[in-house]
Design brief:
By secondary structure, the protein is an alpha/beta fold. The protein has one domain (3-240): Spore Coat Polysaccharide Biosynthesis Protein SpsA, Chain A, CATH 3.90.550. Helix content is 24%, strand content 23%. It has helices at 18-25, 76-81, 104-107, 160-168, 171-174, 177-187, 224-240; strands spanning 3-8, 33-39, 61-66, 88-91, 117-125, 131-134, 136-140, 142-151, 192-196. Strands 1, 2, 3, 4, 5, 6, 7, 8 and 9 form a 9-stranded mixed beta sheet that branches. Strand 1 (3-8), helix 1 and strand 2 form a beta-alpha-beta unit. The longest helix is centred in the last third of the chain and has 17 residues, at 224-240. This is Glycosyltransferase. It comes from Methylobacterium phyllosphaerae.
């Protein structure tokens, strides 16, 4: 199994992501490389991205300058670059020094003939955008990306390019990559599977959050209103583009 990790960041955090990068590259399941999608300017506040001297494409790290689609930038451009590859994509956040076993928790339930998306956190997405989180082991309809999500090869369709652009132009979708991704895969009947069975050795919540985790976080104040708006937009989007 070849695995490419993928992430993005924001201007106010870019100088502090080195420990996150180190944690991703030192998992006890080997990562082929880490691709970091970095826009030139942040659309949220117009701020320019200033790359630290140490953040260069070298060895296992590849830096790609991309458009800013919001938080979905951490995985969408990477999925598009590798849409016809046999690699799995592991999306990670920029504010967590992930434990060494974080990727293995997902690969341990990944079978060779199971083309499903694997997530540590998620639950059920209900009518109107209501999200009901749960934990355990089973199929779900909503993913949450902060604990890492593992995407199988060839999971996006030819319409993903346009879907990415159109949803990023909606204010609710732009702020909430989880529901944008979940509704896309639900629409195309790509299974999402949640695996989080807490034990003495593996706690429910991922550990290793960085000091900057709450700085400029889009999740401040909750997701409920934004999920409702995104759900409405995407539902109408697929109705209008069903032909």
């Amino acid at each position: 199994m070849r695995i490419i990790a993928s992430m993005t960041t924001i201007p106010s955090r870019i100088a502090e992501i080195e420990p996150v990068i180190e944690s991703v590259l030192h998992q006890d399941v080997a990562v082929d490389r880490l691709e970091i999608n970095i826009p030139f300017h942040c659309k949220r506040n117009g701020e320019e991205y200033i790359l630290p001297d140490w953040l260069v494409s070298e060895g296992q790290i590849a830096v790609f300058r991309t458009d800013d689609y919001g938080p979905i930038t951490k995985i969408a451009p990477t999925l598009l670059r590798h849409r016809h590859d046999d690699a799995y994509m592991w999306s990670v956040d920029n504010d967590c020094r992930y434990p060494r076993n974080q990727l293995r928790l997902l690969t341990s339930i990944s079978g060779p003939n199971e083309d499903r998306i694997l997530t540590r956190y998620g639950g059920n997405l209900k009518e109107g955008g209501l999200f009901e989180p749960w934990y355990g082991h089973g199929a779900c309809t909503m993913l949450e990306g902060f604990g890492g999500v593992l995407y199988p090869p060839n999971c996006i369709k030819d319409d993903f390019d346009r879907y990415l652009v159109d949803t990023s132009n909606d204010k609710f979708c732009r702020a909430n990559d989880d529901i944008v991704l979940a509704m896309y895969f639900n629409h195309h009947q790509v299974p999402i599977f949640l695996h989080n069975v807490p034990s003495d050795d593996v706690p429910y919540m991922v550990e290793g959050w960085m000091a900057h985790a709450d700085r400029d976080a889009l999740s401040t104040g909750g997701h409920n209103m934004a999920y409702e708006g995104a759900y409405k937009f995407i539902t109408n989007y697929f109705i209008c583009n069903s032909s």
